[in-house]
Amino acid sequence: MEDSEKVKILQDLIKIHSVNGNEVAVARYLQKLLAAHGIEATVDEFGDHRANLTAQIGQGNDPRVLALTGHQDTVAVSDPESWQHDPFGAEIDGDRLYGRGAADMKSGLAAQALTLIELKEEGQLPAGTLRFIATAGEEYGTPGANRLEQAGAAKDIDALVVGEPTSGNIIFAHSGSMNYQVTSLGKSVHSSRPADGINAISGLVAFIQAESQLFDDVQDDPYLGKLQHSVTVIKGGDQVNTIPDRAILQGNIRPTALFDNDKVIARLKQTIDHINQTTPYHLELTILMSFRPVATDPQSKFVQGVLNAAQANFAKEIKLDIINGATDASVFTLHRPDLPVVVLGCDKWERAHQKDEYTTISSFLSTIKTYKQIIHDFFD
């Protein structure tokens, strides 16, 4: 396939509006594209235009399974008028290709689909099985990855490559991400007699004071460093002269492999219980989202093999690195915590979710070459 054809496929994907949904349109496009090259893909629709896609190629002589995964959705475009390039125009300016999802991550998704196609067209089917997994809803709630994980899509995988934007660098570990809510329940009275009530906001203040030092004793993770935590949303009160009987706060925590989601939740519950038992306040904890951290030994054969492949195909210095964002790998490793995982994709992590998001055509083409070499070396 000519490079111009590959770029056209990426442009087609960017032009499909899949903002926090409508992945079925992306999946049907990919299914048709793969079918045109003799590769059967399965689209699993699960309502409201959500859909996952899976496909695989290989000779099956090697029992191992290598998986490539990417998500089909994008984040919203909050202010399209402020963009210099049409968010869904897939405009090209020099080496840059602009559009929502150009970096995160329709470039990686297209590169993965094209990898299957090129291996098939070149008669270079891997000795084992190469599985392509395109998910729905990674940006919000991961319904697609969860559905696939529950169906066993990851149970036989021997290694996983996630196509998020990394500028060709090899991400061997990323933090988890947990959103939680604390609801404070009090007693409402007129503000002229506050002692007769229980101020729900004050209950949140008690939690915030505890939360500021809640993880001070947690050791830094050898790969992911310090556990990050923040209170980010507070809502309480309806009227200035009434003591509020309900208030909520929400926060985000980035668990590490050393202090994972289960340990974080236990610490939060312990703190809530202590406040409830020693103060007049009543707090309730709700976990809104829980992505687990992912870490693979950077000196492992798999990571080093991916590093060598990237170094051979990108015209830049390639490094091993970590990120504090989460990916679908958090879901696919839920029951496979030792599954080797790397994140590797096109330009640029820093451009994800930004105004005038872009990827570079050169990195897109280099990523395809890198994926092909990873697969060749993995099964060699």
Q: Which properties best describe this structure?
A:
Aminopeptidase; 380 residues; 16 strands; six-stranded mixed β-sheet; Alpha-Beta Plaits
Q: How does this model look, in words?
A:
With 380 residues, this protein is an alpha/beta fold. The protein has two domains: 3-174 and 293-379, Zn peptidases (Aminopeptidase); 177-291, Alpha-Beta Plaits, CATH 3.30.70.360. It is 31% helix and 23% strand. The protein contains nine helices and 16 strands. The protein has helices spanning 3-15, 23-35, 106-121, 143-150, 200-211, 261-278, 301-313, 329-332, 361-379; strands spanning 41-45, 51-57, 65-71, 92-93, 96-98, 129-135, 159-162, 170-174, 177-185, 228-236, 246-254, 282-291, 294-295, 320-323, 341-343, 358-360. The strands form four sheets. The chain has a six-stranded mixed beta sheet, with helices on both faces. A four-stranded antiparallel beta sheet has the order 10-11-9-12. A three-stranded antiparallel beta sheet has the order 4-5-16. Strand 1 (41-45) and strand 2 (51-57) form a beta hairpin. The two termini are 24 Å apart.
Task: Record the SSE blueprint.
Layout: H1 3-15, H2 23-35, E1 41-45, E2 51-57, E3 65-71, E4 92-93, E5 96-98, H3 106-121, E6 129-135, H4 143-150, E7 159-162, E8 170-174, E9 177-185, H5 200-211, E10 228-236, E11 246-254, H6 261-278, E12 282-291, E13 294-295, H7 301-313, E14 320-323, H8 329-332, E15 341-343, E16 358-360, H9 361-379
Parallel strand pairs: 3-6, 3-7, 7-15, 8-14
Antiparallel strand pairs: 1-2, 2-6, 4-5, 5-16, 8-13, 9-11, 9-12, 10-11
